[in-house]
UniProtKB/TrEMBL annotation:
The enzyme's E.C. designation: 5.6.2.4
Protein name as it appears in the record: Replication restart protein PriA
PROSITE patterns the UniProt entry points to: HELICASE_ATP_BIND_1, HELICASE_CTER
SUPFAM superfamilies: P-loop containing nucleoside triphosphate hydrolases (SSF52540)
Annotated Helicase C-terminal domain residues: 565-731
Known function: Initiates the restart of stalled replication forks, which reloads the replicative helicase on sites other than the origin of replication. Recognizes and binds to abandoned replication forks and remodels them to uncover a helicase loading site. Promotes assembly of the primosome at these replication forks.
MF-aspect GO terms: 3'-5' DNA helicase activity; ATP binding; ATP hydrolysis activity; DNA binding; zinc ion binding
Keyword Ligase assigned: no
Recorded catalytic activity of this chain's protein: Couples ATP hydrolysis with the unwinding of duplex DNA by translocating in the 3'-5' direction; ATP + H2O = ADP + phosphate + H(+)
Keyword Mitochondrion (UniProt): no
SUBUNIT field: Component of the replication restart primosome.
Binding note for cofactor: Binds 2 zinc ions per subunit.
Any GO BP annotation: double-strand break repair
Length: 837
């Protein structure tokens, strides 16, 4: 700990100062004065509460990044209000990580901290109102003001909501505003920490009765009070005090006795009052303790060979790519390597791209690792995430499985990081800042902690495979499916031909309908993939061509039939479904296109006896929705599962023998340089869900209007290397990754002309220094207006090699600052997305 000493000069006592990270988008640390009583106990990495801004009572949670005795030269430092942590909750290594992410991804360190810390570690504040004891009553009060003041006199302080419940119909905000003006009340901010440990009330016999003689005398004395005697006897049936007095000290959950209808609760309270029993509270973990039930994972010969090769390559490389086909059993290899890391005394982190995946894989992992393992993702409550954070810090959790945000956990002794499905775009955060990529952050963390990184995928990203081919990463291949399972048969269905022959039924080809029917007869399961949620992408009038459009964004409103509403998937705007065309009054308003909700609806009509379920963002908003859907499907309660891309990622179901893929052409022809790669990945991944058991080959039907497309032939043949070779030639020709680094700048403003002006000026200034081959744009993106702000994109390509990227980013940031400090352009915002996806 930094030694802090007080110096005295001119009878003025100099204090010490803390450099703080505040969760705001400002590119600097803030200096605050350390109160004298905190000097000896404040530590770097601890959280503090500080006032901020001119508004009275506005406070933030900040993290101490440095301590010194140099006062700021440009402003008067304010005092830290409160120290929240006796021991730091943010490690020194994490502070370095925050700085690196801030520099690399061109954002503010406060934005990094805001994302990194779970919400439960940040304080919340609530406005409270209290009676002003100095109020002189000279002001004339209305009846409403009198009534509200009377309530305040009877309470130390009340929130607006609490006052509203007490005074009924009175307009509380208006009355309080008036009372503030008359100096009758005081408004202040009550600050409290969000995290609250889960407490359980327990009960135990007073220690006097642990003595056998005293206990028998008690029971004898209670013979005339049979209800009280019954309470004591029931407690003893749970806690054998005589055989094990230590159990009595641990006590019994009071709720167990409270739930017993036969026991007199009043007798229990009397016994507590008479000090026969005593109550106490204990902190209970929110995660149930699970013991490991499986000693080790048995690997097949192919898996064992892959694991051995990985460990061999780790001797030379910090990062190794495991390129294993779908169903090859990569998870078993991961578990084997995690066990080795933990046995060696190191920590391990297992990253997954989707919460849905954690739901299924956690059960398998808990059997092996038990309560050594923590789980970390956004569907957990604030309190649950804080407990995992503190569990890693204390050493309770040596191993964590989680989604991208798990890279921010306070590990200090990592030995292994596994990034499963490393190609997945969901590892990249898009909004808000920092727009980091968890895979790349994990590699940097491993470099600092001397850990190893294993990247796993059946369809690696082009950039990762290129680095493996160049020898920058190790490469291990696993091209044999687990057990006797074989890769599925892939069939292309020509929808253009079926439409000509009129054999399509709604969105289903006759081939797919026949396959679904046969699967039903065999009592096997089917997965249907359509990467678009909702019922249909938009409504259109057949008479005047009116379409449903969002008033805030340049996109159509998606029709959601179950909710009976039109919804924008960008800003969340909702509208009622019009009964008539808003433009011409026609009744011929029709749905256009289709999403997962429409497919589910059509399946229920075509196969009324089939049990269908949908898995997309709309059906998985609730905390345990993923778990419930996957559990039902795993248990065979569902025949057909319709879903978006979340069903493509590593889910493992034995009874799935058929996969149907809709709208493959839209995936392939998306206007983006990675479209072909992503289409191959997505189609291959969802195809891999079929036929994962050995007794029957799975079948995949891909509906397309052009079966001759090269990319589809590569999917059929599992020709990843062919895809890689073609993509690499094209990307080298047009200067795209892995040959360049991309930085996308998005300029935003509520007026299109100002937005264009700022974007054109920024592009010109960047081009003057970087050259026209490196700077593309500005151009309007596919969706040129979101939340009433117009957008222009500037793409910057910087070749890999001797270029100083840090200097390039500093130059770009300087040019951005020039725009933002221009008086005519101050309302413009500019977002930098480094390594954009």
């Amino acid at each position: 700990m930094l030694e802090l000493t007080y110096y005295h000069s001119n009878e003025e006592e100099l204090t010490f100062f803390a450099e703080l990270i505040l969760p705001i988008p400002v590119p600097k640390l803030f200096t605050y004065r350390v109160p004298r009583e905190l000097v000896d106990i404040i530590k770097i990495g601890a959280r503090v509460i500080v006032p901020f801004g001119k508004k009275q009572g506005k406070v933030f949670t900040a993290v101490v990044a440095g301590l010194h005795n140099t006062p700021p030269s440009q402003y008067q430092a304010r005092y830290i209000l409160e120290l929240l942590d006796e021991y730091p909750l943010v490690t020194g290594y994490q502070l370095e990580l925050f700085r690196w992410i801030s520099d690399y991804y061109m954002c503010c360190i406060g934005e990094v901290m805001n994302i990194a810390l779970p919400s439960g570690l940040k304080i919340s504040s609530q406005s409270k109102v209290q009676y002003n004891p100095d109020f002189d009553h000279k002001e004339l009060l209305t009846n409403s003001e009198e009534e509200l003041l009377e309530e305040l006199k009877n309470h130390p302080a009340l929130s607006y909501d609490e006052l509203g419940r007490l005074v009924g119909d009175i307009n509380v905000p208006s009355v309080i505003k008036s009372l503030v003006g008359k100096k009758a009340v005081i408004i202040f901010e009550e600050v409290r920490e969000k995290y609250t440990p889960k407490m359980v009330r327990k009960i135990r016999l007073h220690t006097d009765y642990e003595d056998q003689t005293q206990l028998m005398m008690l029971i004898h004395r209670l013979e005339k009070l049979p209800k009280q005697q019954e309470v004591v006897m029931r407690y003893l049936s749970h806690i054998p005090v005589q055989r094990n007095p230590e159990l009595n000290q641990k006590g019994l959950d009071k709720g167990i006795l409270n739930q017993d209808d036969e026991l007199s609760q009043s007798s229990l309270q009397t016994l507590i009052k008479n000090k026969v029993f005593e109550t106490f509270d204990v902190i209970q973990p929110r995660f149930s303790e699970m013991q490991a039930t499986q000693a080790e994972i048995k690997l097949t010969d192919a898996q064992q060979l892959a694991a051995t090769q990985i460990m061999t390559q780790f001797e030379q490389q910090h990062v190794v790519l495991l390129h294993g086909i779908t169903g090859s059993g990569k998870t078993e290899v991961y578990i084997h390597l995690i066990q080795q890391a933990l046995d060696g005394g190191s920590q391990a982190l297992y990253l997954l791209p989707e919460i849905a995946l954690t739901t299924q894989i956690v059960v398998r992992l808990q059997k092996v690792f038990g309560d050594k393992m923590g789980i970390y993702h956004s569907k957990f409550s604030d309190n649950e995430r804080v407990e995992v954070w503190k569990g890693v810090l204390s050493g309770k959790y040596q191993f964590v499985v989680g989604v991208r945000s798990a890279v921010f956990l306070p590990f200090d002794n990592l030995g292994l990081i596994i990034v499963d499905e490393e190609h997945e775009t969901s590892y990249k955060q898009h909004d808000p800042a920092p727009r980091y990529h968890a895979r790349d952050v994990a590699i940097m963390i491993a470099h600092w902690q001397q850990a190893k990184v294993l990247l796993g995928s059946a369809t690696p990203s082009i950039e990762t495979y290129y680095l493996a081919q160049q020898g920058r990463y190790g490469l291990v291949e696993l091209f044999q499916r687990y057990g006797a399972a074989t890769l599925p048969e892939i069939i292309l269905v020509d929808t253009k031909q079926e439409k000509k022959q009129k054999t399509m039924k709604n969105e289903f080809s006759s081939a797919l309908l026949q396959a679904l029917e046969m699967n039903m007869e065999r009592k096997e399961q089917s997965i249907l993939f359509q990467n678009r949620r909702g019922y249909s992408p938009y409504l259109q009038c057949e008479d005047c061509d009116w379409t449903s459009e969002c008033p805030n964004c340049a996109v159509s409103l998606t029709y959601h039939q179950r909710a009976a509403e039109l919804r924008c998937h960008y800003c969340g705007h909702k509208e009622e479904v019009p009964r008539l065309c808003p433009t011409c009054g026609s009744t011929k308003v029709r749905t256009m296109g289709y999403g997962t909700e429409k497919l589910e609806d059509q399946l229920q009509i075509i196969f009324p006896n089939a049990r269908t379920l949908r898995m997309d963002l709309d059906t998985t908003r609730a905390k345990n929705a993923y778990q419930q859907i996957i559990q039902e499907f795993e248990q065979g309660d569902i025949d057909m599962l319709v879903g978006t891309q979340m069903i493509t990622k590593g889910l493992d179901f034995d009874k799935v023998s058929l996969v149907g893929i809709f709208d493959a052409d839209r995936l392939i022809h998306f206007p983006e340089f990675r479209a072909t790669e992503r289409a191959f990945q997505m189609i291959t991944q969802v195809s891999g869900r079929a036929g994962r058991r050995g007794d029957r080959q799975g079948k995949v039907l891909i509906q397309t209007s052009n079966p001759q497309q090269s990319i589809l032939q590569k999917v059929i043949n599992g020709d990843y290397k062919g895809l890689y070779t073609e993509e690499l030639l094209e990307r080298e020709q047009y200067s795209y990754p892995p040959f360049t680094r991309l930085i996308k700048l998005t300029v935003r403003h509520f007026e299109q002309a100002i937005c264009r002006q700022a974007a054109e000026r920024l592009a010109a200034e960047l081009t003057d220094r970087l050259g026209s081959t490196r700077v593309l744009g500005p151009e309007e993106p596919l969706v040129e207006r979101i939340r009433n702000q117009f957008l222009f994109d500037i793409m910057i390509k910087i070749e890999r090699g001797p270029v100083n990227m840090k200097a390039v980013k500093a130059f770009i940031q300087d040019r951005i600052n020039d725009i933002l400090t221009d008086k005519g352009l101050r309302q413009v915002s500019i977002v930098a997305d480094v390594d954009c996806m």
